[in-house]
Design a protein that fits this description.
- This protein is mostly helical and 287 residues long.
- The chain has one domain: Up-down Bundle (Rhopdopsin 7-helix transmembrane proteins), CATH 1.20.1070.
- The longest helix has 40 residues.
- The N and C termini lie far apart (52 Å).
């Protein structure tokens, strides 16, 4: 038996609040670590700015979602009158789409930036990534326009060919971007690990367990994020109302760990690993 739309909306609201609370804790920790560094190079200043922008966008998104659902449940009796959840063509939803698109593009850009550093600033990575990011921006804009011109009932909403096309295109592009960047990071980490073993033996690996752990976290979070988007694509393609829950959850997952400027030491690690003369046993990295 399918879950009623009102239950789905309420569940998504709870999950969104939970994820937002977790993200706020990470934001505060990251801000503390970044702001109170003794030295603040340009990369740290950039992280502080992007960190603040992404948190502000996520806060605006969740505030609009809470306000919208509060009106539906408390003023419009959404538990008994489920038709109040059928309204999609509203300025609030358009703005939420744009805000989520902003966080997606910023998050994807940060992941690409990490991969680009790991690969010694290869130009082809920037070229491929630029096309993917540009495509994501275009599809988000067209998705917003298609939603504004679509019918307001859920069945027709899913059946609208323009909406389905732009919606799946947006999700596919951000998934491809993260698969591309995560694969680059994973391969670079694996090749670095193999080189380390050939140069120093197993004992040398212990010395770098922390930095390898950070890179492993970036890879694992990237894989999890891609899997979440793939699940969302499947749910959307099967016209399941669960898409409402997934999209609300993803509005907070767009600020995932692999794009989150939480790890101040990761730029240092990336810089050392990507350096052509890097020898792991001769360097010690401080946070």
């Amino acid at each position: 038996m399918a879950m009623p739309i009102s239950d789905l909306v309420f569940t998504s609201m709870l999950l969104q609040m939970l994820l937002y609370g977790m993200y706020t804790c990470l934001f505060l920790e990251a801000s503390y670590l970044l702001i109170f560094r003794r030295k603040k190079p340009k990369v740290v200043i950039m992280m502080i700015v992007l960190n603040t922008i992404m948190w502000s966008v996520a806060t605006t998104n969740v505030a609009m979602s809470m306000n919208k659902n509060a009106v539906r449940f408390l003023r419009q009796n959404g538990i008994e009158n489920v038709t109040v959840f059928d309204e999609y063509a509203t300025p609030e939803i358009y703005l939420q789409l744009v805000l989520e698109g902003i966080n997606i593009i910023i998050g994807d850009s940060l992941v690409i930036w990490r991969a680009w550093l790991l690969w010694n600033r290869k130009r082809w990575i920037l070229v491929v990534s630029s096309f993917l990011l540009l495509g994501t921006g275009v599809t988000v804009a067209n998705l917003t326009y298609a939603l504004s011109a679509s019918p307001t009932t859920p069945d027709n909403l899913f059946d609208d060919p323009k909406l389905s096309t732009w919606g799946i295109a947006t999700m596919m592009l951000t998934t491809m971007t993260n698969l591309f960047a995560t694969s680059l990071i994973a391969y670079r980490t694996w090749s670095h690990h193999r080189l380390l073993r050939s140069l120093t033996g197993k004992s040398g690996i212990v010395q770098l367990c922390k930095q390898n752990g950070i890179l492993a976290l970036l890879i694992e979070s990237g894989v999890f994020y891609c899997c979440t988007w793939l699940a969302t694509i499947i749910i959307f393609a099967t016209t399941n109302n669960g898409i409402n829950l997934m999209l609300d959850v993803l509005s907070q997952l767009t600020v995932r760990v692999d794009s989150f400027p939480l790890v101040p030491r990761s730029p240092l690690i990336i810089g050392h690993i990507s350096h052509p003369n890097y020898h792991p046993c001769l360097h010690e990295i401080y946070a």
